[in-house]
């Protein structure tokens, strides 16, 4: 695999006479890819039905002739203003019942049939025109599905769609009433048309109701994306991608990804650390100009799974951004570090967002590779260095990691539907385990809940898998390797009920969760030997030997052969101890990483990254601040 | 009085074939009472007018035949979905103008005439059918009035009702304008029909307007409850009750209670500590698995007054609940402790909520006496112990405590209408005084503002009585015992004006409040001799000797004979000093309780409770953690 | 100039028989002015078109005959309830789309044409009747424009008005699209009628859109005020004023002030410290009973500029108020201190709000000069002292200060439209500089952005001037004195775009801002020599010598001749060092003030104020707590 670089470009933002020079500079910088078009609808169709594609023809021609490969985006994330005259009810409605109005982007409801048809229409027109272009080497559907909390909409269209979807799931209203336990609080419906969306209820809605709406809402994203794929495929053999975002969990990315050839994502390490990693202020200060050492890596591994091996960074932060609460500059070296990190996790390409900083509109404070006045911005120097380094780098083919970690969007919805403790969330639980694996020097594959073959792994971790299907359950029960389960494994059925026998109800694991407690975050329960339970613990019945327990004697991890059940949420020290136990049982060597240092293997290469702003001593020698070490193994 | 136990049961949740065994196990556990029916409307009347009461007949028969006494609830807290088709405008509207939709419970507006009539109808049908049942030994109206902030509704029905109510109060719009001072800011109305509800105003509404709406809203709860009582009474001689909640102060419980024979309440000590006690995080950590040492006791004493002596705990927490921010398990011993504590305060019965944990719907994480799989949950062991202990216990008749504390819902509304300091609230002020009385080892009677005869008490405390009628004022002026007043006693008229002469304007107490200050909570004003003023202080005129004053020389408590006026909000140390002074003037002995230990006398018995998780030395010897000591005196 | 005192009086609140005695007591207290009428509409016109002005005739007569001068307010801040029947759509709509209802005050939308006409009508009627009154010596339009966040309204009237305004600004929709960069995210409009207000968008609106709406909204306030002036002028030669508030920045006060003879403002030092100064809790505790030492001074200087030299305090806090989160009493001496402070900054008059505390409605907890029962409140003693002192005081004529500070409302909107760092705001930046000037013992003139002649000043400071017109830019470039610029000087065009060449693009200043960073507030970057950058820093290109730089070597202030560019937000120590450098370059002596002490020169007098609650040593000797020292220079 040849590793390549690219950038995101908006020809419609700049005078046509500058395009050629821009293209020339991109090529000179060593870039291969240029993504265009994803917000250009008002220029492609300024009036309903009036297509003005000439400029796009010329833009593609200019870029392609210069030697660049074009990724062409469908412009459906930004329907023009006139679309609202056609479809006055197409806006999403927020949970308080207010419309989310025109004036920025993503102003549509995934459930709206009329807009879905418009989205097909514009996609078809683009596919027909550019499907055979020699320069269009890949497609992108829409832009950042779910960003700005746009997956869930409480519109009339969503209500109608939800009813239809429920009918398809349950057929009979009595079946739904029974599955959801609607007898509780007299919530029984006499017809699917009685069912409203689960917002604005007096107190919490039935979790079965909420969970169904979460599943429905995810399906609507899948449907929307699928429709575009159906329009592009007949006209183009180029791969189709979508650019996902960081920590957007409201729809099932694996399901969307099934219809696409490539998964891409938009990586903004500094913005993410401030607004979504969920870190402590101390951690935020430590990595303010570097980003969290694991957050990007997690998403690299996640989207490699979503793309079934093929994935890119479509938008790489090249300097300060505009949208986080605070927007510092990356330390010198970080743009290069982030780029190599993506390649270390198997990326095919890394594209920088954006080529030239816009001097207008919402993102005018978002750095690009060029300043608004066209001068090189600081990142350009690191891009040049990347280009030089890639020229010398070997072709690699990423293999399989020794450790697998299951990530399941439905479990995320389940935890958020009923967290029990206000601070608990599935993403955090899985990410904490991921971080512990990285502190142990391990490379990780993330797997979807549809993964059933674990034969290549030494360990499979499935933390917090609150709801799971019978196939995955059987696969985990039969896995030949070490398996880590808990907490809350199999705690809810598909319909969001507590199953009987009580969870986890796993073969060859004599563990029953007899009671659960959520704990104040300021009341950790210390473990014997170091570490602590934080926020959640289960009481267990059964005869499985304890491997970790609290100072009060309550087990928080038990193990039977190569099956480990962790019945609590542990702090980092506790998780490190759990990973040591896991490695010991799995023929894996535990390599304790220095603070802020991470390593990853990719094919024949091993990478070491120093995410701190200080030099750090490692087994590979001293790593300078914000640096990458590459070696062949 | 024979003390009994019971539980809450939902036959409609379980297969009919399990009812008999459930009933048998209840009896075997020593339970006397079983409450049923309060959420069952969709099973009693699945379609409008189609009654299906057969299952209820059989459930009552099965439970009664097994030896249990049934408390039958009216199901009006959960009208079925079809009710909204009949009365599309029956939902409550929140203060921001949004409907509070169907999908959970309490989805109705107390002002809605149509729903009031439906509530009468279903109650009448149940009363007619079961009023003469030998097994129905008590009734419950609705469920937890006011829970989930459902007392105040800003609906069209409420607006219409409020106008009618105002007309009945003031007769003439000019009288209202004058009483409210509507000349201020040109708020004068020309007709009662001009008056809107006091929400969504540009800045705060006229406090007279807000206060009137608070009084009206409380009256609507009284009316709603009264209507059910009117339907039950002709058909049944069994006592009628309602299950109140903890710290719901939006309606006047004493007024509702006047129409009922028994007051019951729902006691969830761990959930309350997290979500409504108002404790510091330190206090919340200390009692996370025990609950606040005084919060339940306060409500026991309050509802004893509401029930005019007859009261129960209708729902007692038996394990972790589902609805607080964090939901730990009670320490072993606490279920027993809470049960004995209720009896120590004169309860007739304590019922555990609920029999078997539901594996579905909103409360699937709420522990019961049985687990979802039907096994005994940990609380069952403590219930068994209670049953054994009650068998040996004497019959008792609770008497009068030496100390009376007045609690007045209207004063709560007055403080919240105009707190002056953002953190000030009446409940907190009264509860702090109550806690200080308990730290002094005193048993307390809580009295309504309609209490006029204080002849049996050594002390009457009336802290924070911001608004009071002339009868209570006269009764306090003439009380033969020690009386504690202030702060803000008589600070507002019924119409919410500052009276002239300035407050408190009490006979035989030469005190005038000439100015008030609210203080930042982080700026306590230390007292000479220990303790501090926190948050609020009044400047006094008059010749009454000071008993407590700040280091700046400002009096905060003055006393003339057996009249004490406390002109500030004091911290715990300050309150302890005030209680010592109070006891000294009232022939009461002050018994300083160890931290977390409380005592109460009930008839011939004295109880000691250790609410901590450590053994504590007391005058009665060492109390183990989470333990009860009972002795005859 | 003769300095005078006054008060605010509401004859309509009190029995007519008390007016004469009230007037007599005002005169006896030494008061000259009495403001009346500004909330009296429901008494002036109780029914639509039915004028009842007799009582107002008698009130003016009574007050005037007693020797008082009347300031007559137009009552438009409180339209009566019947106005809403006439104009059902006149209410403002908040950013979430909800009406801001009747029931308090300021319940109107500035864009509403119908209400604007009503406002003209009532103003005309008053002007016709009282324009020639010998007792009406001044007018006040409305009351506290913009208070309670009432400048911005998202009503239908505002939307229509905004479209019309945009048409007048841009003429052609393509011009607007181009100016705003609406090609970004396909936000292009085909007609002005497509443009909505910039609220409730999915993510942030185009900052050009937001900024235009801010400019429009300010213009509507100017228009509203202008209309009243147009009605009064033909009938009266008395000066017209408006009473502005503290830190209301949503409309351009300079623009409103152009149509008025006098600027007045309402000074509530204790309330402001709690709810709008933006101080730390530590600072709030230190000055809880004195108010911030600079906040009032800043507004005195600001409104002196708004009034083009003529300004008053129209409402001076005389005791605890009712509306802040916490409302303590001022320290003894503070009412006098605040009064002298206003005179030290050139006030013509100081009026106390209010005469007698109202025992009803929203402000019943707001102290007056009299208590609700008519007794003197504590402030009366300090008013008496003021009266004695003023009798002996010389006539003064305020001159020009040595230092000018530009305050620009449009820059405030620009920073809030796009702060980049969540905590950054223009008011805070300017106010911090103002405070540093005051710590240096300097008297300051605040100037509007229309000031072009700086010849009388030694220094002009223009911090944070994010957007500025070409005239001011040229004037600053050509200023003969020292000029302090930055950060973000000239960072945006009028249409809210980044200009090219990049900012600041100032003549004779070789500085280019090549990149900006916003920083976490908990990550100060220390300076070499003391102080720190907090929250924001720019990277500079150019050859200008550095005068302050961080420990990492990054410049944060550079200076070329008498031009200083400050490229960061500095903490107080950093600002003090900047002021020392500024004074050194400008022939100004830097006088370091003791903590909490401030000085000001006014004409021939120099004042020293001790804002602390302790005695402080100064060059003038020991200042007692909360005291004023006056001396002739
Ligand atoms: Zn449509
Ligand atoms: Zn109805
Ligand atoms: Zn109108």
TrEMBL record, chains A, B, C:
Domain of life the protein comes from: Bacteria
Protein name: Beta-galactosidase
Binding site for Zn(2+): 109
Enzyme class: hydrolase
Active-site residues (renumbered): 144, 315
Family statement drawn from the similarity comment of this UniProt entry: Belongs to the glycosyl hydrolase 42 family.
PANTHER family listed in its UniProt record: BETA-GALACTOSIDASE GANA, BETA-GALACTOSIDASE YESZ
Domain Beta-galactosidase trimerisation residue range list: 401-588
Occurrences of domain Glycoside hydrolase family 42 N-terminal (ranges): 8-391
GO molecular function annotation: beta-galactosidase activity; metal ion binding
Alphabetical list of CDD domains matching this protein: A4_beta-galactosidase_middle_domain
